[in-house]
Amino acid sequence: MSVIIDSKSNKTSSVESTVVQPSEHDVPKWFSTANHVVNGLFKVTSSLLVLLLVLMSVMIVYQVLSRYVLGSPSSISEEILRYSLIWLGILGAGVACLHGRHLNLPLINDYLSASNQRALSAFNTIVTIIYGLIMLIGGTVAVSKNVNFETPMLGISIGLFQSVICIAGFLIVVNSLMHFLNEQGINKNTLIAVIQSTVFIVIVSACWMWFRSTSTYEDWTFDYLELFSTIVLFTSFFFFLIVGTPIALGLAFSGMITLSLFIETPDLVATVGEKVFGSLDNFGFLALPFFILAGNIMNQGGIAHRLINLAMLLGKRIPGTLWQANILGNILFGSISGSALAASTAIGGIVSPMAKEQKYDRGITAALNATSSTSGMMIPPTGIFILYSLLIGGSASIAGLFVAGYIPGLMLAGSAMIMAYVYAKRLNYKGDKEPVAVSVYLKTLADALPALSLVIIIMVGIIGGVFTAVEASGIAVLYSFILALFYKSLTLKKCFDILFNTSMTAAIIFFLIACSGLMSWSMTFASIPETIADFLIGFSDNTNVVLAMMVVILIIVGVFMDMTPAILIFTPIFYPIAYSMGIDPIHFGIIIVYTLSIGLVTPPVGPVLFVSCSINETSISEVIKPILPIFALQIIGAFFIVFIPELSLYLPKLFGIIK
Known about the structure:
It is a single chain. The protein has 27 helices and no strands. By secondary structure, it is mostly helical. Residues about 5-20 have low confidence and may be disordered.
């Protein structure tokens, strides 16, 4: 089940992880006590997240069974699922701050001196704390406003549910502060960094407030409001992006700064908490954590070995058998595990020792493993298509997007296959001509079939209209859990870690979605999509030219930004332009996801490439030369998808999903 976040700063940790503490001799006693308290708080909130995910898993399975056994879905379980999802996303965002797990782009950090790095870290911590305080204030306002209103089915105060905003605000403040102090230490240098950053923030804020009082500001907001808003939005966002602020907070603050052109600051602060809460109140979002959970469960139990054995048999006669098997394995495992990083790690980890033993070129092996692993982001069932569909209000059906992803996904992997064949012929790597008994084929297929059956069940069910994407995610969780029990691959500790890491991944996604809601809100106020549309169409009114320009922009964006925030930022901007030009929503979804998939591997911040290099014990410099032709083929593929819509739309039309 394809996980949306294939993070360029992907971090995983067990729930047992605690704050990295300096030596007891180096810190004051009060700070050691504070660390113990925060660690205890972390364990409590982490356990709560796990319990929430367990409750949601039980409820979604019950929801599916109640529909098919009792004849109608339960309204009570639906309400429980909705509010549990909101709590998981908002509470998890606060918990994730303790280990700095929120996505960011450390573009300049490595090029700075130690003192400047410390000052930058202090700046980002202060910004995060400010956001936490805004959540506290906004949450308090939301609770007091809605405390007397009750939910229709459960009869529980909506204000009580919205109290999670206050809890998360508190956790963001405390956890961010403790993470910074444990990372930097309590010393004179840390104090100087905090003072420097505070002074900088105060000066910039004072300058902004002074500028707002000038006649120039009044003229710009009166005569050039749309253009001025666009400049403010993107200037502030890219500033936060460059300095390494968590992307979610960059989205939130750039949105709030832009909204301050239209709304008084006190009113805006009071509204933020409720807006964050409301941004996650969408039943369709439930498919995301369940597909992630199903993928994490399926990652256990030796599934990668079973799939690579099947791939080895399928590609045994082709020159460069190991390379072809690696690519086929990534196709199969990527769609099941839901992550290019997981696929490149699991499949690449199996192939690498074999490639080393057979003296395959290490740089080429790493390049092929990395570039083919992204195919799982296109081949369904993939969560990124669900997010895209929800972002555009369901104009593109999830079933249509799922079916449309097959050909472009195979094009991504096919680019690697073509170059694998070319490299194998050039280096004289021959295929295996030895005959294999039919019984071996059947046994290998039988071993892999249980895992592959999940994809078949989900696709047939969704395409056939048997169940929705949310129901499919519940079936995926139930099926993967039963399969893991059959393989005897789960222990209690593994279950707990899987649930916790799933809740963290989901929370990071949901926090991005919630914060992007503030940015989208500001773009709506300022008519920014229309402004950008006028700018792009000013170059050309030819549909293909405009789409090609979008592809170029997205390729550049993908080099620096992870897929999830890129989708959240650029879909609301580009989709209205595509829609106004008559582009099919499914076709456009394929274009944007395919193009951003290429960026998952590109340096300077491509973890999939770094992992592949590490697994194959090679350097980036050895990989650059063989990887460039693969990138070239994949980029050519992106323009083929733009200029030949049938590559995306043929299968949805064939299955009658679209006309």
